[in-house]
User: What shape does this take?
Amino acid sequence: MHDILVEYVEESYDRSTKILEFNHPHDLREKLHLELPDKAENLDQILNDCRNTLKYCVHTGHPRFFNQISQGLDIVSMAGEWLTATANTNMFTYEIAPVFVLMERATLKKMREIVGYKDGDGIFAPGGAVCNLYAVLAARHKFFPACKRRGMFGVPNLVMFTSEQSHFSIKRAASILGIGTDNLILVETDARGKMSADDLENKVQQAIGRGEKPFFVNATAGTTVVGAYDPINKIADICSKYNLWMHVDAAWGGGALLSRKHRHKVDGVSRADSVTWNPHKMMGITLQCAAVLFKEDGLLEDCNSMRAPYLFQQDKHYDVSFDTGDKTIQCGRHVDVFKLWLTWRSKGTRGYEAQINKLFDLAQYLVDRIKAKEGFELVYDKPELTNVCFWYYPPSLREMENCQEKQLKLHKVAPEIKAMMMNKGTVMVGYQPLGSKVNFFRMIVNNTASTKADIDFMLDEIERLGKPLTWDA
Ligand SMILES: O=C(O)c1cc(=O)cc(C(=O)O)o1
Assistant: This one.
């Protein structure tokens, strides 16, 4: 098994290895033997099963895998994951996870200090979306604690606010909370994708005028598509003025907190009541590793505790405040902290700062290369994070007058090139439309193994694949 895993890691770093062996689902199903037999398979078959599984996995650690925000394969983090699996324990009580519980407390304390909180609380959760849900649930509990027992009966018409470019998990949280997505009010963004504080205040005042009860505002630090940072301080001023809970979704852009050069992008973050920060994004920790931090200690426990007597006995022989399970919305909880703690110790905070600065510098290199290359056009010319969004125009489109027909044809370019990319397996870059903007590539720079040569390769590959594209008029 060791050889199988090491071979996969080596392949992941080898640029001559395809990022993926793409198969359509029905074809792949034929190549995978997924049946669960009555009789046990022998060891050779089990090892073959492992080889066959990895054979069709996407090498997300490959230096030219730019498709997702989470990318790369940090060896120390992977080793941490291996130890975590070997320890195979559950985070819900101190009694069976004494080391990891203390480690989680220490790591979350460090993260809160970096945010600027004096003390407070936090938890590692299964992803940024769940972190954001924790914040919404805590906010409602803060203002309406009776909901825990009586539900939403008698509660006024609660409304939440977030930018139109924020993560869809805020919308989903409104649905799960039970207020419905109609009561999540989307706030306009400016030309760079940043929330308009003026529009936020207008919409809060309008909601109050309609007899609704604003209670929660999400500010995004690093939007998913364009990497925009909302104006946190201005939003905090509005939240103070109208007594609203301010959450900062820094799932992706939270990495800037570690860089003295880029931290200004999250100025005001310490004014938030809660912050989502996902080390499995910009800190390169293997999936999953996502934290939600709270300024106020005790609120999580108050909001979520159910005092299950078979787990959270209050007469244990140790300080039961170290049991974490009752402050979560889960029961069993995976140990996500060890790989972060180990990787952080292996780099040091200053080492992480250097790593994050390098990613920003590489993204700036990409911006400069796009500006210099014919046929490429930036969607946003000064990205705030390491998302670089651009269109590629095949020569057949360049001569066309800028009109609706050209936009319709341009809309097809990225999907066509992406399909060829995936079949070739040489590079992977995401694409999407945004508002009235037709499909554009979203290049995420977030793999410490990527170099300027990989950036150049990606641009040249898009040009190689896209240049021949033509559409009959
Ligand atoms: O955790 C991630 O890597 C992640 C989470 C998203 O919501 C969206 C994306 C993405 O668009 O790449 O990545």
Observations:
- The chain has two domains: 1-20+58-88+336-472, 90-334.
